[in-house]
């Protein structure tokens, strides 16, 4: 198969002028358009990557194309290529020409509709934005989308209340607290100073007392109780118990009538017994010790009789008792003459 060469528009025009003027075409130019390629030759062209362009169509009369037809074909871009001249072959028979398959024409491109500026802007606005979108645009797009699924709402538990110490204090709270602290501090200082002054005063008094001797305010060891006639026989005088701690008794002891002074202290643990006139005995309220009228113990835990004080008749005739001396019966001291007054 002869090689084909694509002819330019200038070459086509030159060939057309020569054909119209009746001049013979040069040997290197084609004298007539080559016939349509047979179906066997079209098959290998179709296998190429680029589709094969159809051969230039002939005029209705079967002759060469006129200049007007060639210009129209060049403008439309249907086919401007002419085959190189090959060896001259006899013209095909009309019957054979009918059997050849007609060349396929490329489908005409659909005419584009005219569009104004408003429609172009509207289409640009409707079209999605190229490139990444922001979070706000994505959220708006999801809200506008009818198929967008509603996100589950997250329930946030309420915040716990702040304790009192964590709450914000008012503007004057700090000043008041500082004032209260200052008042408390002043109170502690006043208390401390007053306590220090009191301790100093006590130490001063103790020092003054140390400088002077101690004086005991006790009743005198010797005192007078009256004349012997004021103490009848068989009687116990208790009126000196509170002031002097002594009983004056007039009774018989060992077959002799005597006046003596008994010490009002129990010989068990030092309690003060009481004289029971109806029972005619001394009774200790602490542990139940009992003593007769003469002072001899007879019941209770008391281990020995009551003690006696020294007694005598003074120069003026009154009975004088001396508490500086005591006499105990278990030691035989009741036999001494200074321990009783014989009646």
CATH-defined topology of the domain at 222-342: Rieske Iron-sulfur Protein
The main sheet comes to: 7 strands, antiparallel
* CATH homologous superfamily designation of the domain at 222-342: Rieske [2Fe-2S] iron-sulphur domain
How many helical stretches?
8
Mean pLDDT: 73
Distance between the termini: 196 Å
Supply the CATH architecture of the domain at 222-342.
3-layer Sandwich
Could you give the count of β-strands? Answer: 13
Low-pLDDT residue intervals, each spanning 5 or more residues: 23-57, 78-90, 94-103, 105-111
The proportion of residues forming helix, as a percent range, comes to 25-40%
Radius of gyration: 80 Å
Which structural class do you get from the secondary structure elements? alpha+beta
Task: Tell me, briefly, the overall form.
Answer: rod-shaped
Supply the CATH class of the domain at 222-342.
Mainly Beta
- List SSEs in N-to-C order: EHHHEHHHHEEHEEEEEEEEE
- β-sheet strand percentage: 15-25%
GO cellular component, one term: membrane
InterPro entries: Rieske_2Fe-2S, Rieske_2Fe-2S_sf, Rieske_Fe-S_prot, Rieske_Fe-S_prot_C
Biased composition (Low complexity): 33-49, 118-137
Protein name: Cytochrome b6-f complex iron-sulfur subunit
Detailed description of the structure:
This protein is α+β, with helices and mostly antiparallel strands and 343 residues long. 29% of the residues lie in helices and 16% in strands. It is built from 8 helices and 13 strands. Strands 3, 4, 5, 6, 11, 12 and 13 form a 7-stranded antiparallel sheet that branches. A 4-stranded antiparallel sheet has the order 7-8-9-10, with no helix packed on it. β5 and β6 form a beta hairpin. α1 runs antiparallel to α3.
């Amino acid at each position: 198969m002869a090689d084909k060469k694509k002819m330019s528009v200038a070459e086509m025009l030159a060939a057309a002028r020569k054909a119209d003027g009746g001049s013979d075409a040069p040997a290197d130019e084609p004298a007539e358009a080559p016939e349509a390629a047979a179906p066997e030759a079209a098959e290998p062209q179709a296998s190429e990557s680029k589709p094969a362009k159809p051969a230039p169509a002939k005029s209705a009369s079967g002759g060469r194309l006129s200049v007007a037809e060639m210009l129209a074909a060049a403008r439309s871009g249907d086919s401007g290529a002419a085959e190189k001249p090959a060896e001259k072959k006899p013209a095909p028979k009309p019957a054979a020409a009918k059997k050849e398959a007609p060349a396929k024409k490329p489908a005409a491109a659909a005419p584009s509709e005219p569009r104004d500026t408003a429609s172009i802007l509207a289409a640009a606005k409707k079209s999605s934005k190229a490139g990444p979108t922001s979070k706000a645009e994505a959220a708006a797009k999801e809200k506008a989308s009818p198929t967008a699924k509603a996100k589950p709402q997250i329930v946030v538990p309420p915040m716990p209340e702040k304790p009192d110490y964590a709450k914000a204090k008012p503007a004057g709270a700090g000043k008041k607290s500082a004032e209260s602290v200052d008042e408390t501090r002043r109170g502690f200082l006043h208390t401390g100073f007053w306590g220090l002054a009191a301790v100093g005063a006590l130490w001063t008094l103790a020092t003054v007392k140390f400088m002077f001797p101690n004086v005991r305010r006790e009743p005198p060891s010797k005192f007078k109780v009256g004349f012997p006639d004021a103490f009848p026989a068989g009687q116990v005088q208790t009126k000196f118990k509170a002031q002097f701690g002594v009983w004056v008794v007039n009774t018989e002891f060992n077959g002799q009538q005597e006046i003596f002074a008994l010490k009002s202290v129990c010989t068990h643990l030092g309690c003060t017994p009481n004289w029971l006139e109806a029972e005619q005995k001394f009774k200790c309220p602490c542990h139940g010790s009992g003593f007769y009228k003469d002072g001899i113990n007879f019941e209770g835990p008391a281990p020995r009789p009551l003690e006696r004080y020294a007694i005598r008749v003074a120069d003026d005739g009154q009975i004088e008792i001396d508490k500086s001396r005591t006499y105990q019966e278990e030691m035989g001291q009741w036999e001494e003459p200074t321990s009783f007054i014989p009646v």
